[in-house]
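1st attempt posting a full record on here, be nice pls
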Amino acid sequence: MLSPPPGSTFNSSTVTFTWSAGSATAYFLLVGSSLHGADIYNSGQVTVLSKTVSNIPTDGRTIYVTLGSKVNGTWTTNSYTYKAFNPSATPTPTPTATPSPTPTPTPSPTPTATPTVTPTPTPSPTPTPAPTGAAVMLTPPPGSTFSSSTVTFTWSAGSATAYFLLVGSSLHGADIYNSGQVTVRSKTVSNIPTDGRTIYVTLGSKVNGTWTVKDYTYTAFK
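the predicted structure (as tokens):
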């Protein structure tokens, strides 16, 4: 993310997010009130490097932004937090500068020769291998058709330390369900539509501090 700077406070309810291209071929942008949430905005898969989001709350809450990048066919996400604009916040008064007293000159001591320090060679960093061991969906089998409006999703542990599960009507959507960050490996989701539509499921895995996502599609029960 290039702008606005991560961790900053928005100055209105409309914000333009701009990010670097990297080596990705596609992106997605989620804006929400919780980690990996999309209750405020979901761009879907895009190839542009900027999106303007309107109707962001102006109550000073923490805003969570997820930027997804598709590199070599794999989606990787970066998460950022911001503070929503709050027009009622009391501005912080600018402190009055205290004049500095004029220092009394101090006699200069005779300089002592400084021994020459031999610099310690900096070791070359070892390249960090790409994260592996992401969780995969076990049940229901990817591509299958649900048998009711309530489905229990179960996934492998991999070498991840945390997970999240999104269920939606579009790629990376969370209009049906958003688990938030969890450490369990199973979640039961109710109230899934029963109109035969395509259901998109996103499984996120945190491996070595980096979030990686895997995408699955199912057919809703009808």
